[in-house]
TrEMBL record:
CDD domains linked: PRX_1cys
Catalytic residues identified in the record: 53 (cysteine sulfenic acid (-soh) intermediate)
Documented EC number(s): 1.11.1.24
Main location: cytoplasm
Subcellular location per the Swiss-Prot or TrEMBL entry: Cytoplasm
Name by which UniProt lists this protein: Peroxiredoxin
Pfam family name, one: AhpC-TSA
Amino acid sequence: MTYGVSTSSPLPKIGDQAPPFTAQTTQGKINLSDYEGKWVVLFSHPADFTPVCSTEFMAFARKNEQFKRRNVQLIGLSVDSLSSHLAWVTNIKEKMGVEIPFPLIADLNTAVSQKYGMIHPEASETATVRCVFVIDPQQVIRAMIYYPLNVGRSMDEILRLIDGLQTVDQHRVATPADWRPGEDVVEPAPTDVEGVNQRLRGDLSGTDWYLKKKRI
């Protein structure tokens, strides 16, 4: 049963302009455009007052200052009502001692969820799966991560992803597997024969012409 809501909206893709929205949240009405010039991590959760979601919200809250230092705005979302959201975040503060400092979208009509393809009918026809959308300061989708309903997310991995995206933008490089800030990055591969020959004339110990690392 889908309550008359279409679930056939196409999924946004990396490189797409992030779908604009206006929404009611625990911190008042917001527009996505309010955050131009900032990075945005828009993440959905299945439901309020659920155990895994509660642990995630506390984890995001505890890392909020680290996100802010990276010029990142966190925005949560589920298809619960505003009153449910307010009761839940109040309960988390009262019972667990953690204050939720970022807005939580009340998407009861699934308007935002549908735009972002957050409802996967084979998982649940009415609850959002655990999506993470990373949106850059130009409001372009730069990364997406999907988790099932029953597996919690890693805040450290989301922070690492932000660090990687900001590093490649600033230095025009790529990051290798398991990269962490301060480690070597990967230079773009040559695109012509002369570029290959220049690489071969350089120091490629431990790598080859198509893989060259450097410290920034």
